[in-house]
Amino acid sequence: MIEVRFHEEFYDGFAIDEAVKLYAPYANFTLKREAGGFIVQVEGKPEDQGGADPSLVAAELMNYALGKTIERSRAAESAASETASAAPETASASPGEAA
Amino acid sequence: MDYGVSGTLAVHTADEEVSMSDITTVLGEGTVTVEFDESFYPKDAIYGAAYVFIDRCYVHLDRAGDKRVRVTLRAKSGKPADGEALAGELQNELLGQAWRLSIAAENRQLIESITSRALGGAAGPPGLDELLAMDIDEATAFDDPLGIAMSWEEKYKKKGAADEGADAPKADASASSDAAEPNAAGEKSS
């Protein structure tokens, strides 16, 4: 069994969930929540059930989780900046509407 | 290799440790671990640098201690990777990403201003309702130094009349001179 630890400051829980769902056909996963992070245990599956090398699956899962975390972080950041830039327009529009 | 992993995957053997100021690089078997102070590199810069390596390395981020971050890279190809080169590239990428973020933050206001102007221009000329809503009177109306807003008659009528008046005396004068000339000629001929 392989255990991968994802620090909560660097990895998004939803991204880890998504990665586990994506790689579920290739290995068996157990998710645990610990103070400061997420633990994913990876156990190999028989090859006739579509199993793959657990170390490779763990490594690919790790990369996918990181990539997804970064994408989610950037999406959240751009949404926040759009909201911030839209706020002054709303403020300037309201006096006109009132008038 | 060690990705903050315990079990069969964890085979961490430090062959060499290089320390440059606050950056520590550990070259292991097929892996390279770089530890640095996160106060120099914002989290977005760390993410950006990690993302650059994600296509050719397995990347793991972890906390190495108070305000210290550990990035572990393992080449995907299976060939023994040049750990020192990877570590160097990662450090360069961290610096580049941090610098890019700094520039973006400095220029954010300018970029937003240009973008909003461009969008405002793309919106086209004001509509009838907007024109009617404008407060335009004698004081706020635009100046017309070239007389563009004046009608043609208003602009040229008086000038034309003045020209006609100026031409008339000339014609009279020429007529009188013509009348005088034959006489003179006649006088001369006679």
What does this structure look like?
The complex is a heterodimer of chains A (99) and B (190). Chain A is elongated and about 55 Å long. Chain A has two helices and three strands; from the N terminus they run βαββα. Chain A has a single domain (2-81), classed as Ribosomal Protein S8, Chain: A, domain 1 (2-Layer Sandwich), CATH 3.30.1370. By secondary structure, chain A is α+β, with helices and mostly antiparallel strands. The termini of chain A are far apart. A three-stranded antiparallel beta sheet of chain A has the order 1-3-2. Residues 4-13 and 169-190 of chain B have low confidence and may be disordered. Chain B is of the alpha+beta class. Chain B folds into two domains: 16-105, Gyrase A, domain 2 (2-Layer Sandwich), CATH 3.30.1360; 130-183. Chain B has a five-stranded antiparallel beta sheet with strand order 2-3-4-6-5, covered by helices on one side. Chain B is 50% helix and 19% strand. Chain B contains four helices and six strands, in the order ββββαββααα. At the A-B interface, β1 and α2 of A face β1, α1 and β5 of B. β1 of chain A pairs antiparallel with β1 (6-7) of chain B.
Strand order, largest beta sheet of chain A: 1-3-2
Can you count the beta strands of chain A?
3
Number of strands of chain B: 6
Computed CA radius of gyration of chain B, to the nearest angstrom: 43 Å
The overall pLDDT of chain B, averaged over residues, is 75
Distance between the termini of chain B: 134 Å
